[in-house]
Amino acid sequence: MNEVKILLPESEIPTHWYNIQADMPNKPLPPLHPGTKQPVGPQDLAPLFPMELIKQEVSQEPFIEIPDEVRDIYRQWRPSPLFRARRLEKALDTPAKIYYKYEGVSPSGSHKTNTAVAQAYYNKQEGVKKITTETGAGQWGTALSIACQMFGIECDVYMVRISFNQKPYRKALMNAFGATVYSSPTNRTQAGRNILASDPDTAGSLGIAISEAIEMAVQDEHTKYALGSVLNHVLTHQTIIGQECLKQMEMAGDFPDIIIAPLGGGSNFAGISFPFLRENLVNGKKVRCIAVEPASCPKLTQGEFRYDFGDTAGYTPLLPMYTLGHNFRPAAIHAGGLRYHGASVLCSQLLRDRLIEAVAIQQIECFEAGITFAKAEGIIPAPEANHAIAQAIREANNCKLTGESKTILFNLCGHGHLDMQAYSDYFDGKLQDHQLTKEELTGSLVELADYPSIG
Ligand SMILES: Cc1ncc(COP(=O)(O)O)c(C=O)c1O
């Protein structure tokens, strides 16, 4: 049968998240305290996160049970559909088989809700009254807003200024879900005031917004902070995506040769790829997993693997990761969720060990790919997701040249309904590719000389 949608019933929602730490040949290096340069302990993180999430951060258990209450909420949109992109295959005239997992069906329009609900749940369990967070494109802020609303927790969102200006409907959406949204940098925090004093016209960045949200959280014992990417527990929550895909690919009688996802901090990439990487690590499969980053923020392909802060002000522990330096200010590309200077510790270690691959693509090629996809499949992708589509099209075109019929699976991690300004700019010829100069690439890395490097 020529199926297009491969659907699972609600009863097949996975019962556990997959924790790749259990199976990694080289365990990730520990986060370090910036003052002592010693590994941080759970108590160092306790002002920011509920203890259950801190435990998940360091857990070596391969599977972590999903609480019933979280699974119950997941039923609002999970299992998400897996599509066979038959119309795209035809448009590309490729022998490749292309599948995409569509996470845009979640209430907030992206994969981010998978971890937002889990994080809000654990905060509620520990009596937290308010959560602060950052958001780039607005997808994470929206996801946390709805999750906090579901658990009766207040939510303050620091939204990167350029996205705040580009995407006014995102703010309205977060407001509709009961959150308060600030354009970051603000005058409310020392981190924000410092940036505004040195660069009043700054576009903002995820690193700055994270600093602001952390600064506000540590000032109040009933407030905690939530991060939408990068941290181990966030990546683990997202593995529900790939676990569903494993079942859906089996239903389709197929198995991917290549898995592709965009990478900002690493959560949707981890989400779709880690359960398949387990198949590589434990069951001898050989799936290629490719993370796609914007050419204007190329930490994986041109950054350094070393200790760096997760935020701009230097409030977080030092994390061992591929980074461009925490003061790197990415160009104002439309894929706001990919404008982050570093990559998650787990993805960084896997790349270092050559267990995953990375490519960087310019934004115009990504938008061209997004339009090709939209014309064929009828879904407008989030600009972040266009990065995955661009690489999927490259791979499919490659198959056309070689005559191979590879199976390609990519993560359509969000829809772009609130990103139409980006598409308008593309149609008006206003989008630009950004060639990084050597100074831009290395300028923020040289500032890290005083922090531990990794041999
Ligand atoms: C739709 C979408 N995709 C991808 C990303 C990148 O984040 P991550 O690498 O954690 O998936 C974001 C981040 O905001 C996003 O909103």
Protein model, in words:
By secondary structure, this protein is of the alpha/beta class. 41% of the residues lie in helices and 16% in strands. It has helices at residues 42-45, 51-58, 68-74, 86-92, 113-125, 139-151, 161-166, 168-176, 190-198, 206-218, 232-238, 240-251, 267-283, 299-302, 345-352, 363-377, 383-402, 420-427, 438-443; strands spanning 5-6, 16-18, 63-65, 82-84, 97-102, 130-135, 154-160, 180-184, 223-225, 258-262, 288-294, 304-309, 318-323, 357-361, 407-412. The protein has a seven-stranded mixed sheet, sandwiched between helices. It has a four-stranded parallel sheet with strand order 8-7-6-9, with helices on both faces. A hairpin with an 8-residue loop joins strand 12 (304-309) and strand 13 (318-323). Helix 3 (68-74) runs antiparallel to helix 5 (113-125), helix 6 packs parallel to helix 8 and helix 16 crosses helix 17 (383-402). Residues 110, 136-137, 139-140, 229, 262-269, 337-338, 382, 384-385, 413-414 line the site of pyridoxal-5'-phosphate.
Annotation field: number of helices = 19
Give the CA-based shape: globular
Portion in helices = 40-55%
Strand segment count: 15
Output the keywords.
455 residues; alpha/beta; 7-stranded mixed sheet; 4-stranded parallel sheet; 19 helices; 41% helix; binds pyridoxal-5'-phosphate
How would you summarize this macromolecular structure in one to three sentences?
The chain is of the alpha/beta class.
How is the secondary structure organized here?
Elements: E1 5-6, E2 16-18, H1 42-45, H2 51-58, E3 63-65, H3 68-74, E4 82-84, H4 86-92, E5 97-102, H5 113-125, E6 130-135, H6 139-151, E7 154-160, H7 161-166, H8 168-176, E8 180-184, H9 190-198, H10 206-218, E9 223-225, H11 232-238, H12 240-251, E10 258-262, H13 267-283, E11 288-294, H14 299-302, E12 304-309, E13 318-323, H15 345-352, E14 357-361, H16 363-377, H17 383-402, E15 407-412, H18 420-427, H19 438-443
Helix pairs in contact: 3-5, 4-16, 5-6, 5-11, 6-8, 9-10, 11-13, 12-13, 16-17
The site of pyridoxal-5'-phosphate has 21 residues, from helix 6, helix 13 and helix 17.
